[in-house]
Design a protein that fits this description.
heterodimer; A: alpha/beta; FAD/NAD(P)-binding domain; 2 domains; six-stranded mixed β-sheet; four-stranded parallel β-sheet; 26% helix; B: 77 residues; alpha+beta; Translation Initiation Factor IF3; four-stranded mixed β-sheet; 2 helices; 4 strands
Chain lengths: 406, 77
């Protein structure tokens, strides 16, 4: 009987893990992906939607079209995980039995955790928010714009900085830069958590007249007064407020008693095993790992989980570990970008922003659907399983810079 | 001024900027003059706590390290 693997969540990590397991184990495994919507969202695109650079239609695909034929898709909401019985309970009744469970449920946005945020702030962390912000920006006549983070941790750490740079450029192109003040509210005393990246970013901010408000951890928003207040006790007025909403773990992992107090899964940083459960693995935004919550993280973690489950199914000792690898693009506006590549041991050394990285990000955005979920890109990512078949050719030629992603 | 610790935060294993954000939340619950103790393992927390206390005015009374764990003692202004 084939080993039953249930993957909760059809985002980048869940989809890739499911496809790699099916590819590697063939008839020895039966993989079922459980996803409440059955739609796969490319979230990095929301940033471009908010600034009118992209429309929503290329950001979403039917999950079924991204999964290998051998992988089942259940469009269901999982409501409870039973680690002892090895089942997952589904909202519409019934349950799924598993021999191995992969939790790739991601993070959820909890806008209402910050008083006044829903009424007073805009955002670009969901398609709806991004489209609403795009309409607001379209008729914006200039004013005080504050950009910040309303809760830590949050997905895609560079996104607020990227948005700030791209917005500044947008205002210049609209001819309202002179009438606008752009301020980045930072949880730290620098623009970005990673020191080396901050050293690169801050001079560009100064050059473009973007202000930095240090140690501003958002506590509340007062929409009627038009102010945002920090935990540190500062109050700032705004005409347009753009905040990353607070994040939390998914209810299914909290309700199942698997998560920590914040709703994140206690996960081994190398094996990606959840707590003491030898048959449960987690990846991506759902974990408590001290590393970026991003699609890239999930992308590099998925092959490790697939390889470890394959070893367990074959009765061999699992040997691949996750080394903390992450790779993020960071747009700096004016058609330039840099890249952050790092792992647990090596902090990033970002190159000076240039056009090549901006192009690479665009190519990656476009090539995503045909490469990442299928496992066609990270052929030699650390910890991937040895290939049995000849690598398939990429559907399009990638610039050499993208080699770094592989 | 009181020398008893009013609150202790275990920030071990957390990556920047979470320790600072948690400290900012923690210190809100204290009365002026009370002490907050925080344990962190992120080496970046040393410059971060120093800069944070300078910016916010909260006094970094003590800073020690033992076996890779940093201990910060902060007095609320």
């Amino acid at each position: 009987m084939p080993a039953r693997v249930v993957v909760l969540g059809g985002g980048v990590g869940g989809t890739l893990a499911a496809n790699l397991l099916d590819k590697e184990l063939g008839h020895d495994v039966h993989v079922t992906v459980v996803d409440p919507t059955g739609m796969h969202e490319y979230q990095p695109g929301y940033l471009y939607v908010a600034l009118g650079k992209a429309r929503g239609h290329w950001l979403s695909r039917d999950e079924r079209t991204l999964l290998r034929r051998g992988v089942d898709l259940a469009i269901e909401r999982a409501i409870r995980i039973h680690p002892e019985a090895q089942t997952v309970q589904l909202e519409r009744g019934g349950s799924l039995a598993w021999d191995y469970l992969v939790i790739a449920t991601g993070a959820r946005l909890v806008h209402d955790a910050i008083p006044g945020l829903v009424e007073g702030a805009h955002g670009f962390y969901s398609l709806r928010d991004a489209e609403r912000l795009r309409e607001v920006l379209r008729t914006f006549k200039g004013g005080r714009i504050r950009i910040g983070v309303a809760g830590i941790p949050y997905k895609c750490p560079p996104a607020p900085v990227e948005f700030t740079f791209m917005l500044e450029e947008y205002l210049r192109k609209r001819g309202i830069r002179g009438r606008s003040q752009v301020t980045l509210l930072s949880p730290l005393n620098r623009a970005f958590t990673i020191e080396s990246a901050s050293k690169l970013i801050q001079p560009i901010m100064e050059e473009r007249g973007i202000e930095l408000a240090p140690f501003f951890n958002v506590e509340s928003v007062d929409p009627s007064a038009g102010t945002v207040e920090s935990l540190e006790g500062e109050k700032v007025e705004y005409d347009l407020l753009v905040l990353v909403p607070p994040h939390a773990g998914q209810e299914v992992v909290i309700d199942s008693g698997l998560s920590d107090a914040s709703g994140w899964l206690p996960t081994d940083k190398h094996t990606l095993q959840v707590g003491e459960h030898e048959r449960i693995f987690a990846l991506g935004d759902a974990t408590n790992l001290p590393i970026s919550k991003s699609g890239s993280t999930a992308h590099f973690e998925a092959p490790v989980i697939a390889s470890r489950i394959a070893s367990l199914v074959h009765g061999t000792a699992p040997k691949t570990n996750y080394g903390g690898r992450v790779m993020c693009f960071l747009e700096t506006g004016n058609g330039k970008a840099t890249a952050l590549r790092f792992d647990y041991e090596h902090p990033p050394v970002p190159p000076q922003p240039n056009r090549a990285w901006h192009m690479a990000k665009w190519v990656f955005n476009r090539a995503y659907w045909e490469t990442v979920p299928q496992g066609r890109l990270p052929e030699r990512a650390p910890g991937t399983m040895p290939r049995k078949t000849k690598p398939r050719r990429l559907p399009m030629r990638l610039p050499r810079r993208l080699e770094d992603e592989r | 001024m009181s020398q008893t610790i009013a609150k202790t935060l275990d920030l071990r294993g957390m990556a920047c900027p979470i320790p600072i954000a948690k400290t900012a939340i923690g210190i809100r619950e204290l009365q002026p003059g009370e002490l907050l103790e925080a344990y962190a393992t992120d080496p970046g927390s040393v410059p971060d706590f120093n800069a944070w206390s300078k910016t916010t005015g909260n006094q970094l009374v003590e800073q020690t390290e033992e076996d890779g764990v940093f201990r910060f003692l902060i007095r609320k202004v």
